[in-house]
Amino acid sequence: MLVRMVLVLSRKDVESVLTMKDTLVAVENAFRELSLGSVEMPHRLTTRVNKYSGLIECMPAFIGGIDALGMKLISAYVENPSKYNLPMTLATILLADPKTGALVAMMDGTFLTAMRTGAVCGVASKYLAREDAQTVGIFGTGTQGRTQLMGLKEVRKLREVKAYDVIPENSRKFAKEMTERLGITVNPVTNPRDAVMGSDIVITSTTSKVPVFNGNWLKDGAHVNAIGSHQPGTSELDEATIRRAKVVVDQKEACLKEAGDLVDLISKGAISADHIYGELGDLVTGKKKGRTSNTEITVFKSVGLAIQDIATAKTVFERAQAKGIGKTVEI
Questions:
Q1: Residues 155 and 28 in one domain
Q2: Which residue range forms the structural domain that includes residue 281?
């Protein structure tokens, strides 16, 4: 009789083995492989559950260069926090043996998703932010905001962070926690303009459907990481920001379907698809240069790709196996 053994990893297990430094390496390697053409990654499949104000997405990928195969199931239920005391977003990752297709691991993907999203913007900032970038303005002080700063701290010597949230108490709590965790000065601000003015890097990690700041506030040489809006009709960035910037995306095909910041401007003729300079993988492989001057404004727009999850999950699986972490079950 065929016996299949699967390693099951809880969120606590994943947290115990996954560092931001490891995640940055995994994500950068994933984008390198994407640019080199060794990736199979269908567009995400979305099933809407309107009866319960939710949706669930299936995100599969095979990364040939590192032999990583799997998929992520990720749900978004807006009523979870208020009705069920659950996060709005929940994720599970399934990892398979690329040689046989047999399932080898199942792990919590909620923490991993936050980490890989912080890491992708860390990788983007490595190539697009000024080398001397020290000051950050951040919009949105939830879980993603926390991992965004963790990713940035790995690639730049941060000195000051200005944190803005539509709920002031959230930004105050965030500032206190992240000051202690990262050892840098994080201050809450109550005005969006204060978060942007003078900042070397601006991060948007919100659920806003409309632009959260005026692009004319950006100083020359600023870099923007935009991760919040990922469907047409929603946009964290305004037209001024996009027009002023060299725009790099995680994947052009995905962003032209999902990134409202770009899709909506293209649909009304404000910009063309050619305004997108390139993909992150192009910068990683050297096919295109990232920042080319200290005065240009750059934007990295991400809608999130399965390769980030699967490459990171492979790292988690290997670390857990080496440390004997997790529970092996027969299926």
A1: no
A2: 121-305
